[in-house]
Amino acid sequence: MKRGPADAANAPVGYAQLWRADPGAWSAAGTAWRNLAGPVRQRADALTARIGALRPGWSGVASAAAQRRIGELRTGLTDVLPALVEVDQVLAEFGARLNAAKARLGAEVARAESGGLLVDRTGAVRPGPARVAQAGPAVVHARAGIRGALTLAGAADRETAGRLAELTTAAVRGWVSVPPAWRPGPGAGPAEVSRWWAGLSAAERRWLVGREPGRIGRLDGLPAATRDQANRLLLGDRREHLLVRRLALLHPLPAGPLEASRRVRLAAVEAALRGLDGLTERLAAGGAPRAYLLGLDPAGDGRAVVALGNPDRAASVLTYVPGMTSDLADAPAELGRAARVLQRCAALGPGEEAAAVLWLDYDAPDFLTEAAGTRQAEDAGPALHRFQEGLRAAHEGPPARQTVLGHSYGSLVVGAAARDHGLGADALVFVGSPGVGVDHATDLRMPAGQVWSSTAPDDVIRLARPPDELARRALLAGTPLGPALAVLDGHGERLWFGADPSAPGFGGRRFPSAPHGHTGYWDPDNPALDGMARIVLGR
């Protein structure tokens, strides 16, 4: 939004100006800046190749000077890369906030007009012909609502201009290196990491992102935008890692167990590559909500942490933990589930800023034999606790409403983390749960009334009964007690990992799900989707 320098600091955004604003154009501008990263990387790689070509046939003082100068030019180019991502972040966030302000303005105007009021082109509100009498309170309420939307847009406008001005100044002055001793220790918690980061200058922060992306990208407690910049710089290396693994597995072996194992591992690597490419495509997509890459590790089955919308700015933040067999190959589809909850949040609360995070930073079970145990869930507990603490530490402004949602085995991950470490969340949600590792909601250390659960009537997870109960059923099958036991089992409240969180005796709150099986909680026509969104928004 163009505005003169003298009045830019405090001038409000006008009613007509907000109606005309195009949020998508700002996001597209950010994407264009980010897309410059490809040509910059190509030029930097060409300089690296030039240094390599000089070394074999040229030595001495002049050669060293030439190589040093080319290296400096390459560093100058690579230093630009985080800034390109940052411009994209700033403009995408502005587009998202502008879109939220427009949605709120549209909702306020529609509400006023449905109540018999008239809103003119300047945003002035007056009673319509049918509401001349006793329209005063309605007019005041409508004016306040419209003013609130304009205030949101004005705040976004001023902050965006300030962030771009600060980035421009920092780019002109250059980045400042940080001595090796100025790093958080290995045991530093998210709050300590956040304080360390706040104590650095903007130039020092940008130097660290560009020179130490592997360290910065994984530190809980740092801003989501910072981690996103660092992890995007590593995307090419992560893909190269998978390609090297794939190449090593391409050569067939003689028939036998080793060849069978090779084929399995090759299929897993190729699936991970497809998953990484799907994530990369989502990261490159323009429009809202912008994706933030908070973590990526291609080792093993692969792990990923991706936010839709900036969790540091949102008033409501969902962390979604998927279940059994989830890995890097599944990340794009799992991210789609988080996106559907976010879409329902936008429909239920126009103008409210929300973000959703896919947290796939644990070794999910691949087989039923693994999923029958609690080890992998308990191993994930410290990392999930630390991540949630990091969201709290990095958040800007008033604390967000934090909701953690676990599906299937992921619900055991969430339950075990809450039980053993605490999650600092405002609400826990379990869908399709085989039990969450406790016998009562109070064992999860949550505020009263903020433990929620839903299990579809046809979800096979209902059959995941405790081992002793399954043995008893097998023993009595075919006896006169078998039918009676089957009836009693249908009303049981214990599952494989403890009490059923959807049972009345658990002490939590239930929300409905239609018969959509074990994975249909996110289907558009399932009331469970609205239920999850309402919990995220605190409604």
Task: Describe the fold and architecture.
The protein contains 19 helices and twelve strands. The N terminus is likely disordered. Strands 3-4-6-5-7-8-9-12 form an eight-stranded mixed sheet. Strands 1-2 form a two-stranded antiparallel ribbon. It has a two-stranded antiparallel ribbon with strand order 10-11. The longest helix is centred in the first third of the chain and has 38 residues. It is an alpha/beta fold and 539 residues long. Helix 3 runs antiparallel to helix 4 and helix 11 packs antiparallel against helix 12.
Q: Radius of gyration, Cα only, in angstroms?
A: 27 Å
- Share of β-strand residues: 5-15%
How can the largest sheet be summarized?
Answer: 8 strands, mixed
Compute the separation of the termini in Å.
Answer: 34 Å
What is the general shape? Answer: globular
Instruction: Going across the biggest sheet, name each strand in turn.
Output: 3-4-6-5-7-8-9-12
Q: Which bin fits the share of residues in helices? A: 40-55%
Number of helices: 19
Number of strands: 12
**SSE-based structural type:** alpha/beta
Overall mean pLDDT stands at 88
Q: Poorly predicted ranges (pLDDT <50, ≥5 residues)?
A: 1-11, 484-491
Give me some keywords for this one.
single chain; 539 residues; alpha/beta; 8-stranded mixed sheet; two-stranded antiparallel sheet; globular; disordered N terminus
Brief characterization of the structure:
Helices cover 54% and strands 10% of the residues.
